[in-house]
Request: fold
Amino acid sequence: MTPRPTRVNKKDGTTLIQIPGGEFIMGSDEFAAERPPHRVRVSPFWVGRTEVSNAQFRQFLKETNGTPSEYDSKALYDHPDQPVVGVIWEEAAAYCRWAGGRLPREAEWEFAARGSDGRRYPWGDEEPDKGRAIYGRIFGKGGKPEAVGATSGDVSPFGILDMAGNVMEWCSDWYGPYPPDSDSPLIDPIGPAVGTKRIMRGGCWNFQATSVRTTGRWPTVPFLRSGAEHNGFRLVVDADDQHDG
Reply:
């Protein structure tokens, strides 16, 4: 893994990693929602090395007079360094605007997670184990996410952490089926214009091993808080945005 340029976003302290533009095969043949594999090209962007933490989200709520979710005061989820959970899509989008960025597009998320070599997991094709990623924990029996970036083995080819496990992550896109593949790649796709569910990406602390692959897609009602103890997100900043938040 070649180290990528980094910078710190001044607004919220997120360490951003520069993702180069590139072409890759998005999706897989494994599950219906991931078909068909198709060519995509994404432009360069910056993405958070880790998911947004409770401490960062609390600062956002303080500055915007927001209301914390029920998970903010639950012992399994309330440590300042854990990823924020219980966040509906609009709150995640609002945080990103406040921080000077936006939510990742689904294609950006997958490229940041797997690069262009078609790997099955962020670290490669080696099967996951619970020393490498945060998954397979039991809800109601002490299962919980860990501090953001605490699991160094869950790392993408660009140095992004926790893209297989810990918490699921909101993307900007509405959910819809993938288009057919073609000889020319889709350029910076943004998903359907309208929909009823938003996309979440990445596995999480209470998913099983098959669900931590880089191609997994999770259509999710954007405004429900019930059962949202796995809903988190990370920040993206456009490459042409020259200020640091």
Observations:
- The chain has one domain: 6-238.
- The chain has a mean pLDDT of 96.
- The longest helix spans residues 54-64.
